[in-house]
Write a structure and sequence with these properties.
Strand order of the largest sheet: 1-4
Radius of gyration: 20 Å
Strand content: under 5%
Number of helices: 12
Distance between the termini: 43 Å
Largest sheet: 2 strands, antiparallel
Oligomer: single chain
Helix content: 55-70%
Number of domains: 1
Length: 314
Amino acid sequence: MLQSAMSKLRAYVDRPRDPRTGNRTAAALATLLTVFGHLYLGFEQPWADVFVALGTGYACALGFEWVDAYANGRPAGFVGGGWRKVVDFLVSPHMTSITISFLIYPNSHLAVLAFAVASALGSKFLFRVRGPNGRYIHFFNPSNFGITATLTLFPWVGVIGYHYLENTHGVVDAIIPIAILLLGTRLNLLFTKRLPLIGTWTVAFLVQGLIRSVLVHTPVMTTVSTMTGVVFVLFSFYMITDPMTSPSSLRGQVTFASALAAVYGALMLEHVIFTLFYAVFVVTGLRGLVLFVDSMRAPAAAPQPVPATAPVRS
């Protein structure tokens, strides 16, 4: 009976799914967290941040795609399928924009928030390499790139890591991160197939914490305390698992997660703040360099058409 149940579970997990459904799910979760956060959790950004981020994201996504399509002599990704295709095209920029709106705090400087969103979506078109199928793919995680660029150029911008549980008490403090974790587990199990990456990242993060504890004579609970925050859960289940900017093979996921933890530990030893974001920037940049070298060695392949079910990630 147990074997039969496991077989059914495996068949359910391995069943082919439309990647657009995963995009819609992730965007819906980000939107729900944003609304719930502003109404109940105590998000300190004004509602204006949400609307400025979304307006900038929609405009940039449509504009950048139109320019790129015109320059390369191809139809834009949002034309030829009615309003449904436009909506599906905007799902990923929606997720990127709304996530940035609650991850950074630019105070009343809405133009800086617009810059973060625009640079996030623009990185998809500026930093690309030729993939094995002949199509160009971006290698920086867009949300992380926009946040990193903003934190670097505007050092007075901050990241609020506590406001996810600022207005909660008691058992709710545990329910919220557990709910985010479980929903993220389902998303990565059924759609992105990045659970090995998450597992390796978690173990590697503990290892780098132990190493730093020995090197700098700091209590272990201090070096791994980041893992207890909601930001770490969001980061682990929704950012580093982006299927467009992380490896799909088991070996690649293990290597990617291990490198991410190693870079995080090295940056912490150098007292670099906002370390999670900078670690992802460094590792995805190095992965892009590797992909570029591989593309130069491999013979050019004829570009393959994008399947109708392929997601447009931003």
